[in-house]
Model the fold of this input.
Amino acid sequence: MSVLNRAKTDGMGLFFMGFSLPVILLLTLPLIEMAREPTVAMLFNTLKDREVMLAIARSLGFSLSAGLLAFVLGTPLSYLLARRTFPGKKLIEGIIDLPVMIPHPVVGIAILSLAGRTHPFGRFLADMGVQIMGTPTGIITVLLFVGLPFYVNTVKAGFESVPARLENASRTLGAGTWDTFRRITLPLTWRHMVLGIIMCTARAISEFGAIVIVAYHPMTAPVMIYERFTAFGLEYSQPVAVWLIALSLLLFVALRMMSRSAVQYQR
Amino acid sequence: MIQPGLIELENISLTLPGFALENINLTIRENDFFAVIGPTGSGKSLLLEGMLGLMPFTSGRLLFNGTDMDRVPVEKRGLAIVYQDFALFPHLDVAGNILYGTRYHGISRDEAQNRLEHLSDILGLSRILDRRPHNLSGGEKQRTALARALILNPSVLLLDEPLSALDPVFHGEAKELLKRIHREMDMTIVMVSHNFDDVIYLADRGAVIHQGRICQTGDINILFEKPCDLFTARFVGMANLMPVKVGKGRVTVEGSDVSLRTANQPAFPFGYMGIRPEDIVPEPEGDVPVGSEPVGNRLRGTITGIDNHGMFIRVGLDSGGLQFEAVWPRRYIRQYNLSHGSGIRVYVSPEAVHVFREKLDPVPGCQDKAPLS
Done:
């Protein structure tokens, strides 16, 4: 029986559908309207604009780099949070969620305060030849900052879904802790890691507030949309936005499909 | 890798928030089928985890063949375990699961393949070697988990409630299989279980554990026939448990005139009496002169209920205001004209009247000894 057919005979289902519809419309109508406004010719012209393509490529490249860095740096932390009990664990979990709550310009300002020349750490980075302000390094740092909660929480849930008993069984069969991680934990959680990378990347693609503080240039797609909107108006910013939204949609559809196959795998 | 031999637990304690194993002393001999028996939450699985090294003991010593295992990591202890839920690796097929540990035990590929074929034949897994665990029945999962452990030729096999996750169809089959493995593979097996029926069928020796403490250890038949305390008695299926005053060769149920001879020689003045339901035997009227009852452990009673259990019936008896429970073959209904409210005379042999303390604590002991009664 389809959802609609079931709802016809089920009062509660009908009631819930009535409330769900405005939410779906709220999410889709503005986007549909924005996507409808530019003509096809304008969309294709935008594609030919080298600056636009570069900005979108930067957004993609930097965001994917942040996603991969989250994989390298966030996996051990996710494992510790899923498997170990230690003092201050709740505090660390709270800290990991912080970037979701803080206004994003504040993130940019905080990173600049640490990496600026007035701070010893900033001077240390400068001495090492690492520049944050106005560089891809700065952008990727910001994207990692805002994307890490998504990676860590997704992968932590993945580790938690693997019964510790399987790891114990592996060890009683003679495998050490590293071999157990490689042969049991990793094959059972890699889908969550891919999901985490996609979520982190998707979150990073949309980032504007922190990037604009740390590195207006090299320009990423959200900064370009903002710039075109303020300099030339809605008409010039919409096509870039449409391409960025199309990209995000592709990523999120992939994300949903991936999470579905992960659930089926566990069954 | 440990050699076949003794496992000794000396004054083992393991403290967790809200629960503790306390002062566990056990000796498991080579080729024993040793059962640790207790209700859910009594600490028996925790004890296995401690033996495996997955939970560090707070104090005490665990010796394998005289070697202290304290600093030996889990993977080097040479103990194999079959978990209650089998803990099969879901991303590997049956063959992959069985072969998983071979590379860590110096078993060559050819040898591993030979052992896989041999075990698959014995355990009936040959046709399902390429299946994933989610496509296996409970019995197939259990046999896969057993093969995964047995392929390593472990000197000690630990079984954590190996039969409780199986449906009745596989239960009997799996019991037979475990018995055969123990008999044919010359292996020391330590099994934890809450089911005394399984234990008495499989094990030669055992220990009863309750709230993190060992109540009684020893020969499994002794545990069954002569429990030391009220908890163990209840756990091994003893019924008709009543507080008694203990006299010379007799017990008198408190608050009644019912007095029975006992073959035990209890050394305490008050305790509990227990009689297995099947040890209360009906007698036809006329065997004993009427008017002389109760004579020699004979009781006259009224039937208060008959419950049908297929081949057997469970009969409730009221004798002198005391409620007794007997289990008899179904044919007795006709043979003795049993019906609700009818009178009957029963006999209990003095050997069937068990006497024990309510609780052993704080009296230590009762381990690897005959019961105190």
